[in-house]
Amino acid sequence: MRAQTTIDFAIGIAIFLSVLVFAFSFVPGILQPFELSGEENPSLSDRAADSLSQELLGSAERPSVLNRYCTVAFFNESNDASGRCNYDAGSPSAVLNLDTARNVNVTLNGNVTTSGSGSEQLCWTESSPANNGEPGLVERSHAECAGDAVVLARGDDIVDQGDATITARRVVSLHGRSVTLAVVLW
């Protein structure tokens, strides 16, 4: 005698179908990280941020410590930096070896004055009363970020057009201050 009943058969088929449905619904989720989408390469922004913070604006010996001259020259779009710095003059896309069709924005943000609240876009000024007449960083909203001050932002303006953006941030040191380097690609 086989001792198999209709109920045993129905339970077996139900378990089999449940496992089959689970497998078909689970497999696309496993493959999803390998599919290309609007954010086709999140590692691209990480590579750009690492390249800026560890090589182009600083040195490999002191990663995440930016060279003041090279950083100000990069954001000022100065052509005289190529002799002293690790990059050639050009657009941010060209400096970072990115596809020229890709939009990029590089910004330094931070809170460097005691009166500021939160993190703001920064400027570099050669003579700042807030720094006792010495060169230094000030927030863009500060009155000293005018005239010959260099706004520490470069690249395309970030416009919300529904495009997916990819952002990478690095905490770096510039002129003895901790600031945030943000690289946005879209």
Automatic annotation (TrEMBL):
Transmembrane segments: 7-31
Assigned keywords, A-Z: Membrane, Transmembrane, Transmembrane helix
KW Transmembrane helix (keyword) present: yes
Domain of life (superkingdom): Archaea
Pfam families listed in its UniProt record: DUF7287
Name listed for the protein in its UniProt record: Flagellin N-terminal-like domain-containing protein
Organism expressing this protein natively: Halovenus salina
Species lineage: Archaea, Methanobacteriati, Methanobacteriota, Stenosarchaea group, Halobacteria
